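So, can you check?
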Amino acid sequence: MDYSKLRRLLALSVVSAADKQNWSEMFVKAYGRNCDDNPHIGDISPFLSDHTRSSLKDLTCTGTSSPLEETAPRFSEGTMNININYPGAGVRYFLSGKSALEGRAQDDGHNLDAGARLYWYPMRFSGGSRFSPYLCAEGDYVSFKGPAAKGSGWAGGAFAGLEYSLSQYFSLQMDTGGLFLALRDKGTGLVENDIEFTLNLGVNFYIKSGNNGFLEAP
């Protein structure tokens, strides 16, 4: 359950106090006990049990006035998205509110890259901004084939980028950085090392929000 649904349920007089408390407790458990991970703690604190309320680190934050309440993906443990980045795609899983692991692959018919990225988000969608900067490290298996050469190797590098929220379901991202390549030609056995600087563009489709299930279609 995301916050927009919880807020509507908490406002209904026909919903029992016990149900409101139970749902609020589940929301805190899924999204976090501090303002950095869960900006709506202050809004739902009246519905929490005394025991849970006393264990929270901060009750001063509120998220109901934020213009991004329903216009940005929520970064929390269990959030997932599908990333489309020409000529490939990836699946990203958030390990926490600030880190995510992504499996990805790209294939243009001549070169195949398959590997993983580890993302770190020092700042989330918050404070009225749709922008969220990130850093990431990448490692890949690489294979190539052409008219005169064929082989494989590996690549590793680091990138800095920015994600821009379009809604709670979609975002755009762009990053740039360098990849160290170590490639070996199968026919001649020659090994070539190189550094390649790249600019990557992608579209993210968020399909799961935290540990509360898959998102419904907009």
Observations:
- Residues 3-55 form one domain.
